[in-house]
Amino acid sequence: MTADLIRFFTTNWIGQAIVIVAQCLAVTIPLLVAVAYMTYVDRKVWASIQLRRGPNVVGPFGLLQPMADGLKLVLKETIVPSSANGVLFIIAPMIAFMTALVAWAVVPFDDGWVIADINVGILYLFAISSLGVYGIIIAGWASNSKYAFLGALRSAAQMVSYEVSIGFVLITVLLCVGSLNLSKVVLAQSGWFFNWFWLPLLPMFVIFFVSALAETNRTPFDLPMSEAELVAGFHTEYSAMTFGLFFLGEYANMILLSALGAVLFLGGWMSPIPYAPFTWVPGIVWFAFKIAFLLFIFSWTKGTLPRYRYDQLMRLGWKVFLPVSLGWVVLTAAVLQFGGWVPKL
Amino acid sequence: MILQALAFYVFAFVVMASAAMVVVSRNPVYSVLFLILAFFNAAALFVLIGAEFIAMILVIVYVGAVAVLFLFVVMMLDINLTELREGFLKYLPVGALIGLVLLAEILLGLGVIGGGTTSLTGLDKATPQVIAIDNTRAIGRVLYTQYFYLFQVAGLVLLVAMIGAIVLTLRTRPGVRRQRVSEQLYRPKGDAVTVVKVPTRGGV
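Output (structure tokens, whole complex):
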């Protein structure tokens, strides 16, 4: 009986299709729940920073607040402005949301727990994250509104600029690993928590985190939706679930970049101390802790820092991060080459 | 196997259709979006033949960077649709000629017409057996050894293009007030902020 079942799921193409769909659901459903509760945690953290209580009415401790918000977004009317470009207006939030989800296919949750264990995992993540900008820029153009358009232009320039420094950060990490496979990136960091790449590559970790803030349009880099000048930036004209998709996409992207940070610099599923009882804890729990830690820093920054000026943002990207990260790539390559630490190919 | 063939035909059809739409569509923004779709499906075709590195680089470089800048520029243009259509018939013969020349070059290069044997003997060097070695490594091995000078020259060409673009657009205007970042950073704190100690839960 079990042998039959195993044969059905491994050889029969219907069985394989069922397995693939189940794997996708096993990643996306927890992810969407995480996104929902990230909005709750975000609001709670800001509330604590500002000495407020935060959401506390719907359900115990306000725990059902994300569900109520989601329900409200679904039930509201979707308004398409009469002068907007109908098709692109609807497609844009879908692109923004989908690009945030498909990237999860290559993220390793534990040893071997990955949907697609491909050889070019880092490049795939980089390629997909560079697609996220299309949702925003198409939204800005299709809305036919000056605020939305200005927000989209700012966002496109910002994301393209900070992708350059993220690219160099990825290059440094893969110089130390010798592979583009994300599981191998994690395995290369095995051992104590000071063996993880955050310590040897500390400047790159900082650059990665700040660029991640800019990539996800979060404070202090939330100029694409700076409410003081642009109403709500690129999603000014969006309502109901079309807005909801942008919102979910933004949070899914934050979680994705935190997961990427955890994989690249915080040892992925590895436990910080490589001895029992720490190694008894399943890897996925450590991974979730690391993601949660980075996400907390995301909320903390948003609650603390004021917004950058646009010229400062561009200066930081091109005149500070680009030279520093480029220099660090050269330095890392030199140290690996002359220190004899080049990873075996 | 049948799934792969099906995938190939779907991707190939979308590439051809969206490439045609790039030329045909009236709105330049649609053209760029169809161009992006064509790039994306071409990347999928690369994945199908096992050239995953080229596929990812195609998406990162062309879709992620070049097409964003295209879209950026095209969206900001004040487009007159009727004027754009006027040149279509005038340039059609030239375009068709260029297309034919490119097609002939591809067919000659692959040995479909003329030679009979494929002239691109180095072709399989770049994509060896997928199981034996992943193609990121394979490309790296020939790119930084055999083709090192050509690689450097390609970099120089891009540098020249970049400097050229900067020289063309650089202009010095009198009376521009610049941001002096060092001055801004070295301004003493007392000039800008006053610190008030607020008792917790007491307010200002």
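Chain A has a mean pLDDT of 85.
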